[in-house]
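Hello Y.,

Per our agreement to keep a running log of every chain we model this quarter, I'm adding this entry. I've kept the format consistent with earlier entries: sequence first, then predicted structure.
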Amino acid sequence: MQTTGQSTRLRRAGRGRDAFWLYMSLALALLALEIFGPGFPRQLRGYANDAVAPVLTVFKGPISAVQSGMERFAGVSDIYLENQTLRDENGKLRQWREAAQRLIQENEQLRQILKVPQREVPPVATAHVIGFGGGAFERSVLINAGSGDNVAPNLPVVDELGLVGRTIEVGYWTTRVLLITDLNSRVPVRLERTSDVAIAVGLNEPYMHLRFLAANGDVQVGDRIITSGHGGLFPPGVPVGQIISTDDDVISVRPLSALDALDFVRVMDYQPLPPDVKQPTAEADATGRPQ
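Predicted structure for the entry above:
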């Protein structure tokens, strides 16, 4: 029993001596740092960085390769998920396309049975807007298509949003287009919601006014107006604008087309009237027929 107790005391004494020398070494190291000055640790780190730099240079290639492989693996996984999503969307679009094709065929069959004429108007030319008419008394643009492109006067001009205006001055290379907001513009229209007919009048301002609407006409803010086809100048069903206010019996209409930022427009080949019938002019009356 005494031998066991003595061995235990000797181990504890040995541990105490080891801890003493460890603390003494740390104290001497801290004292050395104080002697060498505060800049010595930074120098020591610099030497350590110089020593480790070759090792890091050697292992940089493999580490970069591993990181690149991990990124590629993650990218492949993302591409797979995106590809799966695109496949699902493609399948849905294919179903919609088949449904649209069936509806087109049914519509064509019904049109032939009912002898309904085609409403789609082919374009004469697609042109770029190269100039804007200035001044307070003119709202027009100049396009780079003319008689050399089969453009004629009094043809409707549209963009991807709706009606822009009509051709007025046709040269061989260029044509001037009278915008629907011009003071001389009169567009026979109807309300898409109620089919009430009226005339959209230009004011040389960003907006138009709706006039000659029936007294019992039902007009609400947000209603969309489209061409009625009366007068034979514009084809029916072309979007024109939207009702924005009905204050004090003045109905204001905002054009759907971005008339201040036009880029490309289409001149439509719409000539429903016989050649011997005079086309309506800017001085058309409320019915859209020339005076």
